[in-house]
Design a protein that fits this description.
alpha/beta; 597 residues; DNA-binding; Rossmann fold; seven-stranded parallel beta sheet; globular; 16 helices; six-stranded parallel beta sheet; single chain
DNA sequence: AGCACGCCGACT
DNA sequence: GTCGGCGTGCTC
């Protein structure tokens, strides 16, 4: 018996290769194939060719969809590494490396693959500069040099940034730049992917471009590596910095990381002499930390006479001021002034927020909304009172205080005036290089009150980034003795040392591993039972586990969520255990998501 | 993932 | 009696 067997993976959450008989010639690793799988036609990727199998009634491959492999052997191997680390299936990661156009069963005549390039230099550099153009001057020569023989990826956190800088880069590298981002159509995306396949390109892209990396990749540049957009908030929950470092190790190629301040991962590498720090950023602006308590004149009032005077002074000088506020809508909830009833979402365990602009009560989790009611429908005598300050309400407060000045939200105005916005809006401002004289941050306590090991660090990055672009920055807090404020105007390294020692002490990343396992399902009690049983199973391995805890919010769109958080030192051991155990707790009614940090 | 099979509760 | 919901298990 000398039959050829192809091992095939699919885009399904089952970590398994399926064997098919090769009855045709030209079946090869990395090629897309059409096969029958569980009574359906499915697109699979051939991961290897073998001569043995343990399965008896093999089906054969129906059609080959590629002339040349879609993915190289090297990429398949890298996908395997990623899958292991992030507790995903091999197939899921492999399919992320394909443009959507190739995810359908369709014959495509691809050009041949380049041979895999393995570099000789995996040195890492962190460029500490506070603007893209300064950093770009630093990269430019190196990009030129690498492009002679290889490809370069320049990764930016957001599409908006990418579009902003693409013109100047395209001018410097005419005919070399390939743009990769998700706002491209499926067709455009596929054309970019094909272009990349030719090699010797400068790939300018969002994080997804890393999955399209070419065989001849010789340099990766990660712009603003401390950007929160690199810790994916959705589906696969990758950490882009981590992927960049893995890829550089895997291909033995150079990496340049950049930003005004490094991540703690990078700082740790620097401390361990694994990365070179190029520090050209000296002008650290003073961030004024002001204690709310000293300026109270009414309880719970954000705008104390002191704050108002400070703002008025700037406005009278003819300047624009920016007030950052992270809460949307008008109020955080609506409560009856008689019986205390609060309007909740029908599908989630959250309160409905009042939006006067939309003239609705809205759920920020599922999009559910209902009309505004004045009278309480429970006691029928009280009135529904908006509680808490959202940005709509903040706007009306500001308008009352400064009736003589322009007030805008998300709009560009001529100075003097007051602009209100959230942090995303601030990013938008940065990109437009708008001139903001003073920034008032009134809600840093909301940020610091989150129960998450990363919040203090994120708050630091947030404040420092604002300080880069604004002349005066005023931060108001009820908790000025918090350690973030102790060193914020000192040397940045002092804060990093403090934060790093805390992370080390409690085994948080970048020292330990954190795995959050989220279980979701419609039946609350069964969900909790299942979570409990998963907890007990994991406990057998002597792991440090928190939980079970309820997700916040506990219920979204009629689905309950509960989680376990596993923490420890040994990354490999913990992800191996999770990979094995979690598989068995998956079902279609109780979905599992895993976040690895 | 997506689909079949099987088990229980509701209802012409 | 059988229709249909969802939980479970399997796919080369």
């Amino acid at each position: 018996m000398d039959e050829k067997i192809a091992k095939v993976v699919f885009n399904i959450p089952v970590n398994k290769e399926f064997d098919y008989l090769c009855t045709q010639e030209n079946i090869d690793k990395g090629k897309r194939v059409e096969v029958e799988f569980n009574r359906r036609k499915m697109l699979g990727i051939v991961t290897s060719i073998s001569s043995k199998t343990s399965i008896t009634n093999l089906k054969s491959i129906s059609n080959i969809c590629d002339t040349y492999p879609s993915l190289s052997e090297e990429k398949l191997e890298f996908a395997k590494k990623l899958a292991k680390k992030y507790i995903l299936t091999w197939g899921e990661v492999i399919f992320m490396m394909l443009p959507n156009y190739l995810k359908r069963i369709k014959f495509v005549d691809l050009p041949p693959l380049l041979s895999s390039y393995i570099g000789k230099d995996k040195s890492k550099v962190f460029v500490k500069l506070n603007s893209f153009y300064k950093r770009y001057q630093f990269y430019k020569k190196q990009i030129q040099e690498i492009l002679e023989n290889n490809s370069v990826i320049l990764c930016l956190p957001l599409i908006d940034y990418l579009k902003e800088v693409s013109y100047c880069i395209e001018e410097d590298f005419p005919g070399k730049v390939v743009l990769v981002h998700s706002s491209n159509s499926s067709r455009e995306n596929f054309l970019s992917w094909l272009e990349i396949r030719k090699g010797r390109r400068l790939i300018l892209g969002t994080p997804m471009s890393l999955f399209y990396y070419p065989e001849d990749l010789g340099l990766i540049i990660l712009e603003e590596e401390n950007s929160p957009y690199y810790s994916q908030q959705k589906k696969p929950y990758f950490n882009i910095l981590d992927i960049v470092v893995m890829l550089s190790e895997f291909k033995n190629i150079k990496v340049i990381l950049s930003g005004n301040y490094p991540t703690l991962f990078t700082y740790r590498m620097y401390k361990e002499d694994k990365i070179i720090l190029v520090d050209g950023y000296r002008e650290d602006k003073r961030i004024e930390i002001l204690d709310f308590k000293n300026f109270y004149y009414k309880r719970k009032n954000l705008f104390t006479p002191f704050v108002i005077e400070l703002m008025r002074k700037k406005l009278e000088e003819g300047k624009n001021i920016l007030i950052l506020w992270s809460r949307k809508n008008y109020s955080l909830f609506l409560r009856c002034n008689q019986c205390g009833y609060v309007i909740k979402c029908r599908r989630c365990s959250s309160y409905l927020k009042l939006s006067l602009e939309k003239k609705l009560c809205v759920c920020s989790w599922c999009g559910y909304y209902e009309n505004i009611v004045d009278k309480c429908k429970i006691c029928n005598s009280g009135y529904m009172v908006p509680v808490g300050v959202g940005i709509e309400r903040l706007e009306s407060i500001v308008r009352k205080i400064f009736p003589e000045f322009l007030v805008s939200r998300g709009e560009v105005i001529n100075p003097p005036g007051i602009i209100l916005g959230n942090y995303n809006f601030f990013n938008f401002f940065v990109e437009r290089k708008l001139d903001i004289d003073a920034c008032f941050i009134l809600d840093i306590d909301n940020m610091l009150s989150l129960v998450d090991y990363e919040t203090t660090f994120n708050a630091f990055i947030y404040l420092k980034k604002i300080a880069c672009y604004v002349k005066d920055i005023y931060v108001f807090t009820h908790n000025p003795s918090h350690y973030i404020f102790e060193s914020i105007n000192d040397s940045w390294e002092k804060f990093y040392e403090k934060e790093l020692s805390l992370r080390r002490q409690f085994n948080f990343p970048p020292y330990g591993i954190m795995v959050k396992v989220i279980l979701k399902g419609k039946d609350k009690n069964k969900l909790l039972k299942r979570l409990e049983s998963l907890y007990n199973r994991l406990k057998e391995f002597n792991l440090e586990i928190f939980g079970p805890v309820e997700e916040f919010p506990f219920k979204v769109r009629d689905n309950y969520g509960g989680a376990l958080v596993i923490k420890g030192k040994n990354r490999k051991m913990i992800s191996d255990i999770c990979g094995q155990v979690i598989q068995k707790y998956k079902s279609s009614a109780y979905r599992i998501t895993v976040i690895v940090r």
